[in-house]
Amino acid sequence: VRVRPLTCTETRRGDRRVVHSLGDGTVHVSAARHDATFGFSAVFDAGASQEAVFEGSGMRQLVELAIDGFSCTVFAFGQTGSGKTYTLMGPLGQSEAPAVLGLMQRSFACLLEHSRSHGPGLALSASYLEIYNEQVRDLLSPGPPCALPLRWSKTRGFYAENQLSVDFESLETIVELLLQGSRRRRTSAHALNKHSSRSHALLTIRIRSRAVSTNPAPGTNSPGKQGTLCFVDLAGSERVKDTGSTGELCVEANNINRSLLALGKSWGPPAAAAGPRYGPDVYFVARPPAGHCISLLAKPQGKRTHIPYRDSKLTRLLAHSLGGWGVTLMVACISPSSRCLSETLSTLHYASRARRVTTRP
Ligand code: ADP
Ligand code: MG
């Protein structure tokens, strides 16, 4: 869990800090009618540096597992403006100071460093997709964005057909691909965040070991190993009421909510009527339906029923990392502000459920 600092706007209007990290992996939320403590594998308070998050979250180990041939995924989730993009990429375009680079750039550096210092190196390629209004689009191919069909195969699982995959060998190339792709991403300004990401973005690095040694030294990659490292920047969870979205933005919000819901995120008071209701003064209310993936995956193996990955494009593309053979790091991003209390609690409850999911890498 990462708690971002209060923003200038929040400080200026006098928001209170209602979230405090107590050390040893616990986070405490205290406000008038709420007093709750949650435990996680790691909690990063507002003062934590980008480097501390990289080193303390297990991200480095995840990169090493991917080099070793595992399917690894990291995803950032949380309310709009809670620091997901900052955590993954840093303040994109505003500053290139090394200290603020995010998990992605640090992981790329770690990968390339490994490639240079270990034997024949790694063959690396990247693809970058976004899911916008339930359409999968390629962020790397030039020209106007067009929708790619999703396919399924026994060997690959779900994948986007005809997605561009670009080989890279240097940090500059992959960082440039990340910037180019991120500029193509759909963002719109609304009340909570001036550059709100309106799509889910998935950057996947495919890693193949080039080793063809007949007698590999202990600890080196044996030939044929192929791992993936996937970074997922989810569009913010949000209630239409808080962001002041109308018209096209409202359609976007509903599509974002739809796929997050399939993933297991829910909004509004749990006792509310089931099913989405939209309107200027109405929360986007959706009671967690019986079938959302995270809750189902969090049940003990014997009690699991069918997992409805097909409910959204997002869950299809993440099926392998959510419940299959992947290794997944989930970073829950929250704001410390009193105004974000209900979203913060919802993110923390979701994160607690997500923690119980086990995969078999
Ligand atoms: P999200 O992607 O969740 O919508 P952003 O990552 O865009 O949110 O963050 C919203 C704002 O807060 C940005 O201006 C960002 O620079 C700032 N911010 C987020 N996390 C931090 C942090 N840990 N330290 C400093 N600024 C942050
Ligand atoms: Mg974002």
From TrEMBL:
<keyword id="KW-0505">Motor protein</keyword>
<keyword id="KW-0547">Nucleotide-binding</keyword>
<dbReference type="InterPro" id="IPR036961">
    <property type="entry name" value="Kinesin_motor_dom_sf"/>
</dbReference>
<keyword id="KW-0067">ATP-binding</keyword>
<dbReference type="GO" id="GO:0007052">
    <property type="term" value="P:mitotic spindle organization"/>
</dbReference>
<dbReference type="InterPro" id="IPR019821">
    <property type="entry name" value="Kinesin_motor_CS"/>
</dbReference>
<dbReference type="InterPro" id="IPR001752">
    <property type="entry name" value="Kinesin_motor_dom"/>
</dbReference>
<dbReference type="GO" id="GO:0051231">
    <property type="term" value="P:spindle elongation"/>
</dbReference>
<dbReference type="GO" id="GO:0005875">
    <property type="term" value="C:microtubule associated complex"/>
</dbReference>
<keyword id="KW-0963">Cytoplasm</keyword>
<dbReference type="GO" id="GO:0008017">
    <property type="term" value="F:microtubule binding"/>
</dbReference>
<dbReference type="GO" id="GO:0003777">
    <property type="term" value="F:microtubule motor activity"/>
</dbReference>
<feature type="binding site">
    <location>
        <begin position="78"/>
        <end position="85"/>
    </location>
    <ligand>
        <name>ATP</name>
    </ligand>
</feature>
<comment type="similarity">
    <text>Belongs to the TRAFAC class myosin-kinesin ATPase superfamily. Kinesin family.</text>
</comment>
<feature type="domain" description="Kinesin motor">
    <location>
        <begin position="1"/>
        <end position="357"/>
    </location>
</feature>
<protein>
    <recommendedName>
        <fullName>Kinesin-like protein</fullName>
    </recommendedName>
</protein>
<keyword id="KW-0206">Cytoskeleton</keyword>
<dbReference type="InterPro" id="IPR027417">
    <property type="entry name" value="P-loop_NTPase"/>
</dbReference>
<dbReference type="GO" id="GO:0007018">
    <property type="term" value="P:microtubule-based movement"/>
</dbReference>
<dbReference type="InterPro" id="IPR027640">
    <property type="entry name" value="Kinesin-like_fam"/>
</dbReference>
<dbReference type="GO" id="GO:0005524">
    <property type="term" value="F:ATP binding"/>
</dbReference>
<keyword id="KW-0493">Microtubule</keyword>
<dbReference type="GO" id="GO:0005874">
    <property type="term" value="C:microtubule"/>
</dbReference>
<dbReference type="Pfam" id="PF00225">
    <property type="entry name" value="Kinesin"/>
</dbReference>
